[in-house]
Every structure is written in C-alpha cells, then in structure tokens.
Amino acid sequence: xxVLVAGAGGMGSRFALKLAQAGNEVVLAETWSKRLQSLQTDxxxxxxxxxxxxxxxxxxxxxxxPRETDYDLVLFLTKSMQLADLVRILLPAFGPHTYALCxxxxxxxxxxxxKYLPRERVLLGNTMWTAQMTRPDHVHLADDGSCELGSxxxxxxxxxxxxxxxxxxxxxxxxxxxxxxPRYSVFRKGCVNGTLNTLCTLLExxxxxxxxxxxxxxxxxKVVKEFAMVGEKEGLHLDVAEAVSHVEDCYSxxxxxxxxxxxxxxxxxxxxxxxxxxxxxxxxxxxxxxxAPLCExxxxxxxxxxxxxxxxxDV
Amino acid sequence: xxVLVAGAGGMGSRFALKLAQAGNEVVLAETWSKRLQSLQTDxxxxxxxxxxxxxxxxxxxxxxxPRETDYDLVLFLTKSMQLADLVRILLPAFGPHTYALCxxxxxxxxxxxxKYLPRERVLLGNTMWTAQMTRPDHVHLADDGSCELGSxxxxxxxxxxxxxxxxxxxxxxxxxxxxxxPRYSVFRKGCVNGTLNTLCTLLExxxxxxxxxxxxxxxxxKVVKEFAMVGEKEGLHLDVAEAVSHVEDCYSxxxxxxxxxxxxxxxxxxxxxxxxxxxxxxxxxxxxxxxAPLCExxxxxxxxxxxxxxxxxDV
Lengths: 315, 315
Description:
Chains A, B: Keywords: NADP, Oxidoreductase, Pantothenate biosynthesis. Two copies of one chain form a homodimer. Helix content of chain A is 47%, strand content 17%. Chain A is α/β, with parallel strands linked by helices. The first copy, chain A, has two domains: 2-180, 3-Layer(aba) Sandwich (Rossmann fold), CATH 3.40.50; 183-309, N-(1-d-carboxylethyl)-l-norvaline Dehydrogenase, domain 2 (Orthogonal Bundle). An eight-stranded mixed β-sheet of chain A has the order 5-2-1-6-7-8-11-12, sandwiched between helices. In chain A, helix 6 crosses helix 9 and helix 8 (216-233) crosses helix 9. At the A-B interface, helix 6, helix 7, helix 8 and helix 12 of A face helix 6, helix 7, helix 8 and helix 12 of B.
C-alpha cells in the first residue's frame, strides 16, 4: 500500500514506521519546519517499543508533496487545528483511487474532511496507541495499543478499502479493527479525551493517578453525560454507563500515560486540541439549544491555562 | 479591648499583632500543635509590612484557654473546617458581655456560629488583608488591606459593639469599616474566593496573572451568576455586574497575591476550604432545587487535586 502520512509527529511516526517496516511505501508530509528538517536530514528516529530505530522516508512540507496521484491512502495524524488547511493543501495528492483516513483525536473532523472530499472517499477511526515527541528529532513509542476504522458510507469500494486498510495495518502490527459505525466510535473516544485528557492536563497528573482519586468516577460520569446529550442530537446514541466504563478501562490500560493535551501544554507549551473535544460538545450543545456547562468550563479552564503559559504554536 | 484570637495562622497573626501593638490585650488559641509550640516558646514572629517583629502573647490550645469570661471579643480566624469544633470548645470563654466575630473566608459560618451562640452575640464580616504562613514559626504579612464587619441583628448593644470593634480595629491600623448587612458582604466576598481563589489554585497562578488572560472575565461572570442565584434564595440580592467588578478590582489591588487555597494546597499540601466557597453554592443550589454545575465541577476539581496530592491536614 502506498501511504502518505500527513503529520509526522509522535503518532504519525508510529504509523509511518510500522507501515514502512512491513514493506509498505510511506511518504511523510510535515508542517513543522524544525521537525521536517530533521526528518529530511536524519530520517525518522524513534525509541520504538524499547529499540532505537532510524529510518529514512521521503519527507516534504505539505505544499511540496509531489503531485503523484497513486497514493492508496492519505493518513491524517496532525493536530486538529491544522487539519482543514492540510486537507486543502494535500488535495493534489488525491488520485482517482485515493482514500483519506483520519485517526486523529477530537470530534468533528469528519465534517472538515467531507467539506473537501466526497463522503465515499473518507475513512474514519481512532487510535489507542500512545506516542510522545521527546525532541523535534526523536519520538518515544512505548505501550501497547490498537486502532479501529471504518467507512463513512455503505459504498462497496469504500467498505472494501476499509477492510484492506485494516488488514494492511494489522499485518504491520498496528492491531487494527474494523468499525461498523466509525462516527460512534470517534464520539466514544471523545469521551475518553473529554474526561481523562482534559482533567489530567488541568490537574497535571497521569491517567492512573487521576483514576485513583475517589472523585474521578463522579466527574467522568457528569462529563460523559454532556457528550451523550450532544451525541443524541447528532444521531449517535451513546450508552453512558458503557462509555464511562470505556473511559475507566484506561486507568489500567494506559495508566502511566500523560495524555496528548498534557504533553502539548504542560510539557511543550503548545496550544491544545480542547476546542475539538470538550469545546465541540460545548459549542454544539449551544447550537442545539442545550447547555453543556461542564464542557464549557473545562474548555475555558484549559484556554486560561494556555493563555497563562502563553502557549505558542511554533509550527 | 480584650480579644481572644481563635486561630493564630497567617491572618490571625496579623490581627493579633496589630491589636496587641495598639495596646489591646490579646490571647491566642491555636489548634496546630507545631504552631502552638512555637508561639509559646518564641512568641509570634512575623515579617510585618517589611519589619521583623517578635511578640510574646499568651497562647493556648483551645481546650486549655483559661476559663476567664471577661473577653470582649472572640475573633475567629481559623480554617473553615475547624470552626464548628472551635466554637464549641471555646464556649466556656464566652462571658455575659463577650461577642463572637468571624472574619473568615467562606460562606455559611454564620449558621455555624448561631448554632452555638445567640444571633445577638455574633458579629460577621470579612477581610481583604492577605497573610502567608511561611513556616510554623513565621508569618509573612505584606500588602495593604482592610476589613469590614457588622452585627447580625438590630439589637442596640450588638450594633454598639460592632461600632466599637470597628473603631478599635481601625485605631490598630486594621482599616475596619462598618457594614450594614454583613451577610451580603460575606456573600460578595464569596464571589471573589469562588472565582479567583479557586481558579488560581487550579491553574497555579496569582491573581494578576489570571486577570490578564482574555478568558478570565467570561469565567468570572459565569461563576458569579451561580453565587447570585443561590444568594437570591437566601434573601441576598447580588448585583452580578457589581460583584464581577468587585472581583476584577482584585487584579490590581492584590495582583501579586497567591490566594489562600493556593497556599493551602499547592504550597503546603493541606486541604482547602472549597466546600465553604464553591461547595456551599453547589450544595445549596441543590437544596433549593437548582443547579450550579460550574461550582460543582470546580469543587470536584479542587478535591481531585487534593486527593492527587494526598493533602493531609497535619493539625
């Protein structure tokens, strides 16, 4: 499979490395100039499951990606706020048989992708792999993980491509699973981020530490209820109890993990994706004439924390 | 005036020192054994407005306070969670002409005091002085401040005592002002704590830093609205715009200040008074069949932060 990985940060690097090691043709598109320079000069360097690896892959700024149109897949693993621009800039790389796959954190990316691409060309999913960018020239990839994806429509070619992608990814060790309703799954993952990612960032702790506090359960339930309320309006019926237990499974599965927004803001002083997580729920609740005060407050708190730290996107 | 200062922490020390320096008879009651020991051995030591002072005052554990009944005033400046016990233990110090004055942070102390004492014996107010306990044997008292107090009823003796107290305090340099409706004032001060104290504690910043963030105003308004909603049910009409501007005045007046809960939790790893601030609004909203989701979430977040730090009250 020929894959253009759009966004070669921590997560993009894991997928690129595993896919390339399994014999797929991988090309990288990266916005951050410091990172891009390192990729072009020294290749992709990572501590991959305990082993130092270095792999040279073609890497380009998005504007400079060669206008080949034989990519099978453009895999988006960038920061949420960069997605719209990146999709638009990479449109020339979409040939007649190219699919987009978005495995990014956050809700609402489906709307962004289908603004530029036909619904029949978009695969959606999410990943429970973790990744950490330690330096512009190094990523740290530990912990077990998995990913799941599916097609946005019943179009047979698209469904077939979803199955093929699952197989290719699994053969590469990425533990992929096919989703019947990827929108549902993305929303359910949104609950994980809207609780653990946000609260660990505000409270500066890891997932297990948060989970050990006696009040964690009550907070998780309250926030998930707001997600469910908005999901209902978007045709997604979220089982609150199930979604809560999905969140709470993370305490043991990825307990030592400091979630992505923690890494962005607390470690790297960069803006977070909270607008695509709790912020999505807050603004869409408002759109439907509802109130999601907790998501609204959490979004506000994260933004104040960003403002306090003068978070700057040095991309 | 003969004053028993119940709680010789940072704030109690300021009042005790200033009152004693102005010639009043001051006795200290202190629960924390480490602190008490230092008071008994070395006296009250402080950096008071830039000058090192040391003053020996009689200091006792609450149970050991001599059963004299000629105190004019028992001034409560302890932590909220200790108030009920302390009032009960100090009842033997209340003679026929002794008044209680509570200037503590937090809402609901009036109910605690009037459970043990007649309403006609209780003065209530609050203070904008700041204080910081640097070590068990040292307090740091900088910044300008003021305090305000009034009587809970129209009883002429009580009103007279409120006026006398204001005069004595002002003569001691404590800049006291008479309040017509102290309950209102306490609630209004509650808004300052429920926004700045809580958010600076969660976001680990000082008052000015929080005030400089573009989102501060919006967050303050939302939280103050919940206070106003509960106040209304308790016969206190809070002017939201006025209360908000009262909060925002603090950005310049006490900008460099790290509020009390920040000091308790972040600096000293002790539990906070949030249950008497946002927690009061959250539980009382519920009692009146209303919802105060922001105060509820903020209270929960502070408690999770306490639990994360294993905050232990080493009193």
